[in-house]
Amino acid sequence: MSKLAVKAEADVIEGVYLCSALDLPDLFGAAVEAAPGLKLYRPEDVPDPSRIRFALVWRPAPDAFEAYPNIALVQVIAAGVDGVLRNPSLPERAVVTRVHDDEQAAIMAGFAAWHVVWHHRRMGNYLAAQEAGTWDRTTIKTLRPPSQVTVGVLGYGLMGQAIATTVASMGFAVHAATRTGGDSGDGITRVAGPDAVQQVAARSDILINVLPLTDATRDILNADLFARMPEGAVLIQLGRGQHLVEDDLLAALDSGRIGGASLDVFHTEPLPGDHPFWTHPKVIVTPHEASVTSPKAVSDTLVRSVQEIERGQRPTAAVDKTTGY
Ligand code: GLV
After folding, report:
1. Residues 122 and 172 in one domain
2. Structure pTM?
3. Number of structural domains, the chain?
């Protein structure tokens, strides 16, 4: 081997894909492996685990990190990092980074907006009328203008802000639970404080959840919260399955307290075939596909984070392990 080739190999920073649920090389390999200076392996192909400096991950197995004593960076392929921060083998020293992808936020905002319109316009009525072949123009008679419909947004990071802006631009009254309150003149009412979630929920005809999953937000969508919401309000749940007490939602749907729900995330994924959500007449189920990160955004964030780590800097995309986002 020439001297140059030895040098080139030494300069390559090696990483490993760690995932129990998706084929990451298939989804992201083409983008991340094209990045100069990085080499990624499937775990079974790693030549020397001690040379592995970073991992690209999604729902890694509980012992996934054990084989790699020198991992300095754990890059999650998505915006949510809860499945990684709780991993028992995650090394203390490793910095965890996540993807900030404006395109992902735009896709999420469109998805949320679609569900807002679906519930606001009671599109289910139209589908039923079409099924029956009836020209039924009664639904519009009870339509409330968007300015009189409050849409609450729980979680005000990149996703929550994109959703709030989009839904506000459609004329709805948007109230968001944020870390700092106040009105910024953009039509979005920000609510801060320890009970911001409860306050926003209490005003919301349609409540959209995109909170990060932390100990403070686990089970936050529960009977107590539903009891505070306007009768017949709607839940659009795009955060994490563990935010929602599923039995509480089923009871609230059956009593009419909650009028409908769009659910993209669940306690158990894939949603078990016999789960009552599948057939509930007031529930729309989608398979955790409200949005998706682009391979380019994953690759760009990974390359930048590796470079920052190698320069001894804290990566721009690093999450705070204590807050969990
Ligand atoms: C998807 O669930 C994400 O966290 O980006």
Report:
1. yes
2. 0.92
3. 2
The residues with which 54 forms a beta bridge, in sequence order, are 15, 73
Q: What is the CA radius of gyration of the chain?
A: 22
What average pLDDT does the segment 155-183 reach? 92
Pocket test of ligand 1: the residue of 27, 291, 298 to mutate, having most ligand atoms within 8 Å of its CB, is: 291
Catalytic residue among 42, 122, 275, 288: 288
Q: 144 lies in which domain range? A: 102-285
Distance of alpha carbon 40 from alpha carbon 73, whole angstroms: 13
Options 190, 240, 243, 257, the catalytic residue:
240
* C-alpha–C-alpha distance, residues 270 and 266, integer Å: 8
Coil, strand, or helix at residue 220?
coil
pLDDT in tens, 206-218: 999 999 999 999 9
Same domain, 223 and 300: no
Contact criterion met (CB below 8 Å) for 257 and 231: yes
